[in-house]
Amino acid sequence: MRLFLLLLYPLFLFSSTLHLATVSNPSRINPIVATDASSSEIAAYVFNGLVKYDKDGKEIIGDLAESYYFEDNTTLIFNLRKGVKWHDGEPFDAEDVVFTYELINSPKVVSPYTSTFRMVESVEALDPLHIKVVYKAPYYKALETWMMGIVPKHLLEDETDIMGSDFNTNPIGTGPYRLTKLEFSKSIELEAYEDYYERRPGIDKIALHVIVDPMTRFLMLKSGQLDIGLLEAMQKERQIDESFFNAFNTLEDISFTYTYLGFNLRLKKFQDPRVRKALSLAIDRHEMVDILFLGHGRVCTGPFLPGGMAFNKEVKAPTRDMKEAKRLLKEAGYGEDNPLSFEIATSNASSLRPYAAQILQHQLSEIGVDVKLRIMEWQAFLNMVVFPREFDTVLLGWSLSLSPDPYLLWHSDNDKPGAFNFVGYHDDKVDQLIETMQNTVDREALAKVQQEIFAEIVEDDPYLFLYIPNSITVVNREIQNIEKSINGIWHNFIDWEKAKR
User: Fold this and answer.
1) Which of 101, 155, 157, 418 is most buried, taking the most CB atoms under 10 A from its CB?
2) pLDDT tens digits for 279-329?
3) Domains of the chain (ranges, CATH numbers)
4) Residue 1: how many CB atoms within 10 A of its CB?
5) What is the pLDDT of residues 96-150, one digit of tens each?
């Protein structure tokens, strides 16, 4: 018996841990109210939606739903999986889906994701394993709506303060990992969920280290203390040597993100389209990309990214024209005696954005514009600047899905507290096009409307679209079974394996 226990001892002693970094403390690890990157990242390990994209991003496949079908063009039926359990052992069923829908639409919740369900007429549990969803009209994102994480009715139905609930820092989901440790400003740990419906994940633990400073993140990655990270172009080209690449694989492709300068359109000076156009014409985007990315990025030309059917290839980036920029500013009433002055606010969560802000400051000074910079910690930036709309301009970025919904960012309805149209963009034609788009299910007709939205937004200059970085991901060679796809590397993370230590 003693020999048997000694032989088993190493199995209990050793485990495999995936070490990652996150840029800030999570605020609410609850998919229906998670608005910061850290909370959303962790929630993706803890919760499931009814459906998800397949590896190639071309098809929508079941997640908590085993299958689905349309009864007609406004009625969707989901067949839920049998035997799915919440992390506390309670069974998941159709009532949780109905509860999640009702909760996100309740006055208890302030969330930008409420508008995701705007086209839903009703959600009904036909029995514990079947859900009926009726839409107000045919809707092009009927399925994508249900990629939203589902939350447990039995834990939240009596909660009076969803926004401040303890659940948001002690979440219980159905996902492949469960949260076991949350130390603010230090580390977050997740453990593999033994009863996950697909199978137990191959890696025992995920440790997310809260590292606000990007240089510290880079040094930890460089020293091998992190298993996966993103490199900036300068780091890849100038700051790491061959020994690093012997330990890490490099995966590079265009990212699903873009960076922009957004105007607060509630301010009189930015309501003048001549001012916005002048600033756009004064920016040399190609120079910015060359300086920041050393060939590992490209100029952004609009609100949808290259490769998707919504991208309008006919819209080109503005060519720098200093003479016309000065003329427009003068026409708008600005000059040497009355220079245009404003502040660019951004965060140091990305080491490149402060540099991008400096480039903008320099380029705009060449047409006599006085730009001041405010660089802030990420959570303070969100809570004190972005969401309360206390800014002149913001230098920010968006990560887009494979099927982006312009309603969330560009429709007038979403110029409200907690929503994502925080620049205050209102345009009747764009609103009408977005409303037409949401009821268009024919893909060719849909692409045409999306491309028209693209052109209209660019013409209005509510944002100055700047650049699209390449995503340079480095992965510890000890991690096995990683498969690159259009969705990146995370689509099959439960299959990953790493040596136990």
Assistant:
1) 101
2) 999 999 999 999 999 989 999 999 998 888 899 999 999 999 999 999 999
3) 257-469 (3.10.105.10)
4) 5
5) 999 999 999 999 898 888 988 999 999 999 999 999 999 999 999 999 999 999 9
